[in-house]
Structures are given as structure tokens and as C-alpha cells.
Amino acid sequence: MELGDEGAGEGAGAGAGAGALGRRERDILALERRGFAGPGAKERVIREELGLAPVRYFQLLNALLDDPRALAHDPVTVNRLRRIREQRRAER
User: Fold this and answer.
1) CB crowding 65-87: b at 16 or more within 10 Å, else e
2) 51: alpha, beta or left, given left = phi > 0 and alpha = psi -120 to 50?
3) Among 76, 55, 60, which Cα is nearest to 25's?
4) Please, which pLDDT band fits residue 18 given cuts at 50, 70 and 90?
5) What is the pLDDT of residue 13?
6) Are 16 and 4 in contact (CB under 8 A)?
7) Residue 75 — very low, low, confident or very high, per pLDDT cuts 50/70/90?
8) Burial status of residue 13 (CB atoms within 10 A of its CB: 0-12, 13-18, 19 or more)
9) How distant, in Å, are the alpha carbons of 3, 8, 34, 58, 77 from that of 18?
10) Above 70 in pLDDT, residue 83?
11) What single-letter DSSP state applies at residue 17?
């Protein structure tokens, strides 16, 4: 599963896989930088703004955290999310 495949019609053209993140990947990282007021708010934004089911969104986000292009694009957000992911894995 390639991240660029999901956003191919949204600015993640053939060259996107080689160097730059596609539009959907950038939108996912931008959404992760935002704060959300209450329960369900983030899921509602995921559906309305990105047109994704929350489960699919989190699958894409998890794969994106392992993508070096995402780290280069937004190191603060990616490193924060990686730390959270590792903490949750350690708690299991």
C-alpha cells in the first residue's frame, strides 16, 4: 500500500512518490497540528474535510509516520506523533 496511491487524483502525481508528499499526506499532517474541542470533533473533521473514514485516516497516518518525506516536511509533528505511538505501544 503506497500513500501516494490514495491521493493520486488530488495532487500526488507520478513525481510525488519520488520526493514530495502528496496533497492528502500534507492535509493529514496539517490536521494533526490542529487542536480539537471535544469527543468526536476530530472524527467529524476527518470525514468532512478529508472525505475519509476515521479508520482509514489513522491507517494512512500511521504509515505516514514511517515515511522519511513526512519527517522532512514536518519534523515537529511527525516526531511528536512517533513519541505518542511508541508510548502507547510500550503500555500494551
Assistant:
1) bebebbeebbeebbeebeeeeee
2) left
3) 60
4) low
5) 39
6) yes
7) very high
8) middle
9) 12, 13, 28, 23, 22
10) yes
11) G
In angstroms, the CA 23 to CA 28 distance is 9
- Do the Cβ atoms of 64 and 16 come closer than 8 Å? no
State the sign of the Cα–Cα–Cα–Cα dihedral 84, 6, 49, 52. negative
Q: How much of the chain, in percent, has pLDDT values that exceed 90?
A: 72
Place of cell 494512512: 60
